[in-house]
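Aggregate trends can hide what the representation actually does to any particular protein. This step matters because it turns folding into a mapping between discrete strings. For completeness, the protein is quoted in full, as a sequence line and a line of structure tokens:
=====
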Amino acid sequence: MKNLKYFLISGFLIFCFSCKENYTHNKDVILPDSLSSNRILFSLSLKDSVANKYWPKFNQRKTEGAFIYFNDSISEVFFPDSLVLKKVKKANIYSNDYLSCKRTDTIPYHFELMISFDSVDKNKFYYKNPVLQFLNVEETNMYIPSVKSTEMWSTMVLHEMFHQFQFNHLSFKNYVEKEINTLDYDIRNLISIAQKDSSYFSMLKEENNLLLNAIHATKSSKIDLLKKCLKIRKRRLQKYTKLYPNIEKLEDFYILQEGSARYIEYKTMKVLNELANNNQKLTIKKDSLFKNYKEFKTIDLNSDELSYLITIDYSDYYYTLGFNLMRVLDSLNIDYKNNLFNHSTYSFHKILSTHTKIY
């Protein structure tokens, strides 16, 4: 896979500044008083809350890196790093934390972490440098009609911020460059198998159902369900090991990478649910798409709106398996988050089997 690019389709703090009239300063951040700045700072406050409650290391930096916010005909660059500053042309610099410029490309849709390890991109700002790119809320809604509010948009932003957090671990970044990027096939090949091979896809669904049942099962039943799940997975992967010798390694990586980002997406929803049900009147100044958390009054993973988080689809099955594997690990009280992105092997299945002795 010569050209790997990722187009990945604080309680107290938020109370402190979200009740103010604007969000111009936060942790020494200096931004213009604008709708886009308010949305970014709102998302950063959610990041603080999610990190404090669910993933403390996610809160160790002011930000995880540069964000490019596509806003009609311009790109607003928040927290530009030296590489972005060097590559962006004719920028209007407001502060060390913000600049604006002509739209940095003509691609209509963006909501991804962008990074490349291909030397052909060595003059790009995303060469070995993880940069977030996303549309404003209004334009996102044009492509994803279910994103009707700034709050729902922010769950997507946190998902991508977590990808940036992953790549800020040097061992993880090196692993992607040297172990995943060098394979001569990629996740698209595995998606194609799931789409075309009905028996393979049936096993994926069975694995996922066993994980869902294991989450709320008793300890002894949980272990039995997980044994079945791991056996089915082993049989499923063996079908294609000859064609794709490192199929398990590749799938393990994407299950961990995307599953953990989906986990953060869901935990952001949990924080929004808490905000929806407290007495604080939190708003974002000048934002007609801020809906006062109405979508998050209740959170039900089995609802039509959120069932995508736990349901297997061939196009993103690894997101779902990763998310549900993490929920299983949580249910077993396994401490796996602290060094998750510093392991020499990146696999929730191996973490699970190591701690339960069932594989």
User: Anything to note?
Assistant: Confidence is low (pLDDT under 50) at residues 1-25. The beta strands are 25-26, 29-30, 67-71, 74-78, 92-95, 98-102, 111-114, 131-135. The chain has one domain: 11-198+237-356.
